[in-house]
Amino acid sequence: MSDSTQAGESIVDSDRIGEVGIHTVEPGKVDVSHKTILYLEDVTVSFDGFKALNKLSLYIDDGELRCIIGPNGAGKTTMMDVVTGKTRPDSGSVFFGQTMDLTEMDEYEIARAGIGRKFQKPTVLPEHTVFENLELAMHTDKRVWTSLFSRLSGEQRDRIDGVLDTIGLRDQARRAAGLLSHGQKQWLEIGMLLMQGPRVMLVDEPVAGMTHQEMDRTAELLTSLAGERSVIVVEHDMEFVRSIASKVTVLHEGSVLAEGTMDEVQNNKKVIEVYLGE
Amino acid sequence: MNSLAFIRSDRGGHIFLGLLAAVTLVVPVLSLMVPETSALHLSSYTVTLVGKYLCFALLALALDLVWGYCGILSLGHGAFFALGGYAMGMYLMRQIGDRGVYGNPELPDFMVFLNWKELPWYWFGFDHFWFAMVMVVVVPGLLAFAFGWFAFRSRVTGVYLSIITQALTFALMLAFFRNEMGFGGNNGLTDFKDILGFNLQSDATRATIFVLSALALGLGYIACRYIVSSKLGRVVTAIRDAESRTRFIGYQVDNYKLWIFTFSAMLAGIAGALYVPQVGIINPGEFSPLNSIELVVWVAVGGRATLYGAVLGAFTVNYAKTYFTAALPDVWLFALGALFVIVTMFLPRGLIGLLERIKVRRGAPQLAERKS
């Protein structure tokens, strides 16, 4: 981690340099002045005595593409639940940037603050058209009254069309999302994430059930998305992870077992023992 | 121009609103202008009966909004209808003045009978029409808001929520049965004389209330249609189909549910308020769980998640009820049960779904011909 903090200048706002240690809370703004966008420190979650997360510490940099792997029950999905507010940790802290304490926020607040999530099983809105799926996901005022009177502006339409192109579903825009193929649903869900304009995207098993061709396109898509935003991918498919990852974190029994490039991780003795070996 | 698209694109709605307008014009004419000797004359009984159906249709619309579109199966919507009815009943009660059996200018008959000395505080204000009308929407709305606030925030959904709503209406029924509550106990409120000085028994008053009910139904339909075709409507159906997904794209699901539930309860209250002057009585029986379940059957039969389907269902089932309870009184409950089973098993989208299927089948050969 130490090398990344030194190279922080490129991302830090120029007016923030020099006020190290002082972080004014600006509502709705993510403070990434220390380059790290997501902090999980000593997070423990237990269900009936079983520790799904055991003093997990994990740091994600702004703009990073990170893969998280680990055997079943390692705590990958629970980690996502904690970040998105679905599960509250028993202890430990979870921060979004320097200032936002995610353990204090509701799911919708976390989503609005800029953390988007794609579920393991593709969940789209089946009765709505592809276009409407994207419209509803769009980052905008999502309160009840504004929704009652809201109209799509031309600019917003263009944004939706842009995302339709990115995910390759332009010709399906008027179809009900429930009728899409499995792979298309996966993409639509990624598209919905994009519409939210998140700073952090949590992507749970994006290529499950995809053909090789679809997998390659997804890898391309996810790599192109990182940089502007941080992307965290949980995946079982090693080949896929190898094709996209710059940095891999291995979880085991609720805490970090190893971290590094795919090669480093694959040669790590502990990792070989619990996960890759046999 | 674009702002009217929500109603312009709604073909079923055009048919419904057209029919409604025709009925609204024709019924008062046939009742008031056509002489009683003519075969075309409508008796005040018929006017009142159709007026009742209009109120039921508005109630069905309210339920369809929460059940069909938001997936909240309320088995207690009759409670909001009854509360609206009681608010209206209290006003009509105060209008009786000293014309009651006991001739007491201050107290309604049942209070005199119970030896009450003065009017309970919650009856204050009901002498004024405007106040009662405000209460018609505020009381059901507040109850729905308080109920929903707790239920939705604690994430009670599905069957559990349905059971709680059923318990709510049952509890209210038991409460209103008690004489100490001050709402006339099991007799309820009745013996109404007039409304805003117009005699409730006169044909002209009845026709006016009929027209007002039709107007309320029409406006209620347009309001619901606006809601379901707005972005809010799309969010609400998203909640129905994938609640947690909707939460994770940043919507405060509880607030949406609360809003739609409260609005629906207010509509139900208005329906109840229009119902009471037409039938001339409101009693705790209106809170009976069976009423709320029947209401669910109307919407299911008509076709949920189509607003005109709910209206169609309310008319069809209630017409059947009127017919059967007169012709074969023992059969009605069985028929109702059978209807529900048949609809759930064979017509998941109700009568509207059936009509659409017939239309598609008829349309298909024509298309084939055109191609060849």
Oligomer: heterodimer
Arrangement of strands in the largest sheet of chain A: 6-7-8-3-9-10
Low-confidence stretches of chain B: 366-372
The dominant shape of chain B is globular
Give me the strand/helix succession of chain B. HHHHHHHEEEHHHHEHHHH
Question: How many β strands of chain A by DSSP?
Answer: 10
Per CATH, which architecture of chain A? 3-Layer(aba) Sandwich
The first-to-last residue Cα distance of chain A is 31 Å
Q: Roughly what percent helix of chain A?
A: 25-40%
CATH superfamily of chain A: P-loop containing nucleotide triphosphate hydrolases
CATH fold descriptor of chain A: Rossmann fold
Instruction: Work out the radius of gyration of chain B.
Output: 22 Å
Strand count of chain B:
4
Structural class label of chain A: alpha/beta
User: Average pLDDT value of chain B?
Assistant: 92
Mean pLDDT of chain A: 85
- Total helices of chain B: the number is 15
Strand order of the largest sheet of chain B: 1-4
Shape call of chain A: globular
Q: What portion of residues of chain B is helical?
A: over 70%
> Biggest sheet of chain A, open or closed, and with what strands and sense?
6 strands, mixed
Structural features:
heterodimer, A: 278 residues, alpha/beta, Rossmann fold, six-stranded mixed beta sheet, four-stranded antiparallel beta sheet, 35% helix, globular, B: 372 residues, mainly alpha, two-stranded antiparallel ribbon, 4 strands, disordered C terminus
Describe the protein in words:
The complex is a heterodimer of chains A (278) and B (372). Helices cover 35% and strands 23% of the residues of chain A. With 278 residues, chain A is α/β, with parallel strands linked by helices. In chain A, the strands form two sheets. In chain A, strands 6-7-8-3-9-10 form a six-stranded mixed beta sheet, with helices on both faces. Chain A has a four-stranded antiparallel beta sheet with strand order 2-1-4-5, with helices on one face. The longest helix of chain A has 15 residues, at 182-196. Chain B has 372 residues and is mainly alpha-helical. Chain B starts with a helix and ends with a helix. A two-stranded antiparallel sheet of chain B has the order 1-4. A two-stranded antiparallel sheet of chain B has the order 2-3. In chain B, α3 (44-69) runs parallel beside α8, α3 packs across α12 and α4 packs across α11. The radius of gyration of chain B is 22 Å and the shape is globular. Chains A and B meet through α3, α4 and α5 of A and α9, α10 and α11 of B.
